[in-house]
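For reproducibility, we list the full input for the aspartic acid complex.
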Amino acid sequence: MKKRILFIGTGGTIASELSRGGLLPGVGPEQLLSYVPDVAELCEVECLQLYELDSTDIGPAHWLGMAGAIRENYGDFDGFVISHGTDTMAYTAAAMSYLVQGSPKPIILTGAQKPIGEDASDSRTNLRDSFRCAAARGMHGVCIVFNGRVILGTRARKTHTKSFDAFTSINYPNIADVRDGQLIRYITPYCQSEPRFYGRLNPNVALLKLIPGTRPELLEYMLRSSDALIIESFGVGGLPHGGGMHALVSAAAAAGKTVVMTTQVQNEGSDLAVYATGRPLSEDGGILEAYDMTTECAVAKLMWLLPLARTGEDIRRLFYTPVSLDILTDALH
Ligand code: ASP
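The corresponding predicted structure, in tokenized form, follows.
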């Protein structure tokens, strides 16, 4: 029996055509599929056009829409392939990892750096590889399949704007590779017998990337106007001593604001306790630290957990409870 896969189209470069105003999505999932007729040998595919958007226009409401479409169709299919723009795909993969937890069926996100209508496009390979993964036995949960890599949804980041090699798995290995149409597995992701679906997000989460000389007024404004603020600081993490930033953050945390410290360095994560610029924050019971979690995950995890948490203690517990291997630091043990 061939596996039944639902192919959900959301737009992106893969589905784009040249218009006067630049590349614009306009190719539906049926048409995408017509470029890879050999997929029919791997699985039976049904198509659902959910959105037709550049992923720059995709946000939390669309993540809920995608999770809702999977929930509605979960019983009728063995796996899901979502075609999506690459620009925010890592955020969507993170969000889907929180909205659909422990799925025994694969939920694969893919896309391309070049539209499917172009001769030298990566679209066809990425689609074939994605359907191969979606139809394979033992593939579970949310991942991105791109340029021969299978990356856990909680570990992906777009690291190249133009090359086919667009995504990297951050602080965690690829869970599999696809080489010449063969799936080479390294890690089998954990799953439950039934997925747990969530249907709410709080989008009022903000991110402040520090630069040398960031004005404290900016920090003050962002703390005031968001329900949770992620601060991407330098290196293993810290805040400048001048300008009263430490006091601003500590006062906000003491007043119940959720503040997460992380790093703008891509690899190896934060460790606030190392330097005097960070240790007071790490010792402040009200401030959270992302450690090896990606910023994409920190954003999506906060949006997911804020509606579930009633107290600061709930927020801390949910933030530090690993979901689909999003946080693995030894510091939590
Ligand atoms: N701007 C496009 C998008 O994210 C880029 C892509 O798909 O590669 O929708």
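The chain is about 25% helix and 25% strand. The first helix runs from residue 29 to 34. Both points were considered when choosing residues for closer inspection.
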